[in-house]
Amino acid sequence: MIRKTAVLAAACTLALAGTSAQAQENKAPGWYAKVVGNFAMTNGNSEASTLGFSADVTRAFLRSDVNLVAGALRQSSTRFTFGATGTSAAGPFSIRQDETTEVSSEAYFVRLKGRYRFTERLAGVLGGDYERDVPAGIDSRTIGVAGVDYLFAERDNLKFSVGAGVTVTSETQVVPEGQGANVALAGPAESGLGARFGWKLEYGFGNKDDGGKPGSRFLSDLVVDQDLENTDDLRVNAVHAIEVAINRTFGLRVGMTLKYDNDPPVLALKPVNPTTGQAVNMGTSPLPTIALEKTDMIFTAGLTVNVFSAR
What we know:
Blueprint: E1 6-7, H1 14-18, E2 30-42, E3 47-60, E4 64-86, E5 93-117, E6 122-133, E7 138-154, E8 158-173, E9 183-185, E10 192-208, E11 214-227, E12 234-245, E13 250-261, E14 266-269, E15 289-291, E16 295-309
Parallel strand pairs: 1-16
Antiparallel strand pairs: 2-3, 2-16, 3-4, 4-5, 5-6, 6-7, 7-8, 8-10, 9-14, 10-11, 11-12, 12-13, 13-16, 14-15
């Protein structure tokens, strides 16, 4: 295992809004949109920046709705190195400053989902997901989903629903940035048929807002994807968050996302002779391999903006 990522700071709630189980509460006809974003920057002897956003837009109709969620997270840092050149101790000297900027984390996603309600509780679901997560070795992952969801509870202070369906996944992998020329992928990514299960829980508490609804909410989103052809390939995305409304438009959100991949990308390492610095001639012998970390944890804090909402 070579990677364990914990992003704690002013990172946006990329994963919070981005991972949405199939299940979802019914909405009155109209448009709904929420944006979550954050930017953090340090400057001086070192420079670093974190930029992230997520947007959740829903168009609800009488018996159906279409939901689009998209987001991005990008972290970069700049390092300064210094040097001096001259021909003698008496000088003169030329002072040199070099800058090296690199992207330390980069992730993007888009999720589109349509639902048609057969009853007030049972709905059919059709959608697709796209994800790019370079630190996790995912160049692109596209998932098509078809299934159903069932709404167990829908009250002002409690909403709970579950969803299940079948998936078709296509994935390409990439060596994470900064690994060097002696690291390569051990094999191609697998694609195929799978199954998905998920739930979505929303529990309201605290003082009520201007609309008479609880001003604070606990949110829990779970998505489990199982590859039916390669049973080792199990992925879990669990999101837990607390939102506190400032008013009808603005709110604060903190949370944690756990991303688990039981079959992560595997890297093949080309050995180098530490004495000569030259590559070792492996002939027909297999290269040593190492798997990326199975679990990522992302801690988030951000500002939420309800752009518009049907009432």
